């Protein structure tokens, strides 16, 4: 299949471009790693495919309107007054998958 045909059919099935879908999946993985590990943000960035903390921070802010550090701090209860302004509440796994579109993994059938 030609790359343009793939991109067009991917968008028809998922409602987003392959690039945006991939970025969202990387942010979801980073969220999981920030929630479940004590790894540094640099390490999380590398494991999630962003390469470095600055790139992770950029995409995290665009998708979730918060930084990786603020996200982790909020999850660990370091913000007793509730969420800082601009911080994102911890979404359930189901809502994160729904936000990723089509269960986060489904591509449907591409003829």
UniProtKB/TrEMBL annotation:
Whether Transferase counts among this entry's keywords is no
Q: Which UniProt keywords apply?
A: DNA-binding, Transcription, Transcription regulation
UniProt xrefs under InterPro entries: AraC_XylS_family_regulators, Homeodomain-like_sf, HTH_AraC
Annotated stretches, region: Disordered: 77-111
This chain belongs to which protein, by name? HTH araC/xylS-type domain-containing protein
| Signal peptide boundaries | none
What range(s) does the HTH araC/xylS-type domain occupy? 1-74
């Amino acid at each position: 299949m030609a790359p343009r045909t793939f991109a067009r059919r991917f968008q028809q099935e998922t409602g987003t471009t392959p690039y945006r879908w991939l970025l969202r999946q990387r942010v979801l993985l980073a969220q999981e790693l920030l929630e479940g590990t004590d790894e540094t943000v640099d390490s999380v960035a590398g494991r999630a495919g962003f390469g470095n903390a600055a790139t992770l921070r950029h995409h995290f802010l665009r998708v979730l309107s918060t930084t990786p550090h603020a996200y982790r701090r909020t999850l660990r209860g370091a913000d007793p007054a509730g969420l800082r302004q601009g911080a994102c509440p911890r979404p359930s796994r189901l809502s994160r998958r729904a936000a990723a579109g089509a269960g986060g993994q489904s591509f449907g059938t591409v003829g």
